[in-house]
């Protein structure tokens, strides 16, 4: 990682944030997108990191790592409304094996947090790796007001303090439809890291605000968990589901989301970034190429 103060991760200049986002061990020839097919989430996560040159490209000894799955709903894993718990466990274990000094899983659930974690399987899965911690967000004291420099609709927001102190941030969204946003993938998953999410839906242009949030929350890596997909009645379900048996990963979140639209027919439609305006806007804001024909894609079986 390029030398940068932790405070600059969120809330510093856009140039500093970009240095954090793109500075660490980006190897020439590395694919823009890794598309892994398989049935075992742990093997699939291992294949993601192998295709990108290893976990060491992202996590160094002594790093504090934040993971953000989607665990916001008190639903069983098979509904597809949450990230597969074994995916979260595999990424956390890879980070600990890379000698991270700490791994913290952050989520701001829609309902009672402990029940969400239990019902989606996260509590049971993470019990085998007690060194990785789960933090339930919710109190105003968990967040810090942050200016969104360059934001068009979203000008300020309160961001999770734990994220501000992270050396590495890995985004682990589920693949699912969303009744307002079209889909909930990597960019939409960031909303679980801010205090006031309601304002996105009631007072702001939702798509523009999601893209704006991407200016200040920039993952080092995004892995969309497409082992299952919620096709309709998202984000909570229940709805129609599919089992694409895939993970889509990359450094540039808008590119990952754009390619992630190929995982399934969400809301009974083959979507492109033109159909999901926040992805298109994030591409225009410099958060990644969204024309998937221009992306270097590496397909792997695990």
SSE layout:
Layout: H1 14-22, E1 33-37, H2 41-51, E2 64-69, H3 85-97, E3 102-107, H4 113-119, H5 122-126, E4 132-136, E5 143-147, E6 156-160, H6 161-164, E7 168-172, E8 174-178, E9 182-184, H7 186-189, H8 198-202, H9 206-213, E10 221-230, E11 241-242, E12 246-250, H10 253-260, H11 277-284, E13 297-301
Parallel strand pairs: 1-13, 2-3, 2-7, 3-4, 7-10, 8-10
Antiparallel strand pairs: 1-12, 5-6, 8-9, 10-11, 10-12
Helix pairs in contact: 2-3, 9-11, 10-11
How is this structure best described in words?
With 302 residues, the chain is an alpha/beta fold. It has a single domain (6-301), classed as Rossmann fold (3-Layer(aba) Sandwich), CATH 3.40.50.11440. The chain has helices spanning 14-22, 41-51, 85-97, 113-119, 122-126, 161-164, 186-189, 198-202, 206-213, 253-260, 277-284, and strands spanning 33-37, 64-69, 102-107, 132-136, 143-147, 156-160, 168-172, 174-178, 182-184, 221-230, 241-242, 246-250, 297-301. The strands form two sheets. Strands 1, 2, 3, 4, 7, 8, 9, 10, 11, 12 and 13 form an eleven-stranded mixed beta sheet that branches. The chain has a two-stranded antiparallel ribbon with strand order 5-6. A hairpin with an 8-residue loop joins strand 5 and strand 6 (156-160). Helix 10 runs antiparallel to helix 11. It is globular and about 45 Å long.
């Amino acid at each position: 990682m390029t030398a940068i103060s932790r405070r600059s991760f969120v809330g510093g200049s856009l140039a500093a944030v970009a240095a954090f986002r793109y500075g660490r061990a980006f190897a020439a020839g590395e694919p823009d997108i890794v598309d892994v097919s398989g049935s075992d989430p742990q093997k699939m996560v291992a294949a993601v990191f192998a295709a990108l040159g290893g976990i060491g490209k992202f996590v160094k000894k002594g790093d504090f790592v934040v993971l953000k799955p989607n665990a916001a709903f008190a639903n069983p894993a098979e509904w597809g409304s949450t990230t597969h718990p074994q995916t979260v466990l595999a990424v956390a274990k890879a980070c600990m094996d890379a000698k991270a000094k700490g791994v913290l899983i952050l989520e701001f659930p829609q309902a009672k947090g402990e029940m969400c974690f239990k019902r989606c399987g996260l509590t049971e899965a993470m019990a085998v790796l007690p060194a990785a911690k789960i933090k339930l967000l919710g109190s105003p004291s968990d967040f810090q007001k942050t200016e969104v420099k360059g934001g068009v609709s979203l000008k300020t927001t309160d961001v999770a303090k734990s994220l501000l102190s992270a050396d590495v941030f890995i985004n682990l969204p589920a693949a699912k439809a969303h009744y307002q946003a079209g889909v909930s993938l990597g960019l939409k998953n960031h909303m679980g890291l801010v205090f006031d999410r309601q304002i996105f839906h009631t007072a702001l242009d939702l798509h523009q605000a999601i893209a704006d949030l991407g200016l200040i929350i920039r993952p080092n890596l995004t892995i969309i968990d497409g082992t299952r997909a919620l096709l309709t009645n998202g984000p909570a379900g229940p709805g129609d589901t599919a089992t694409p048996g895939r993970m889509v990963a990359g450094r540039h979140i808008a590119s990952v989301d754009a390619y992630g639209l190929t995982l399934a027919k969400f809301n009974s439609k083959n979507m492109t970034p033109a159909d999901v305006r926040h992805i298109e806007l994030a591409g225009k804001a410099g958060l990644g190429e969204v024309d998937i024909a221009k992306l270097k894609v590496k397909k792997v079986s695990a």
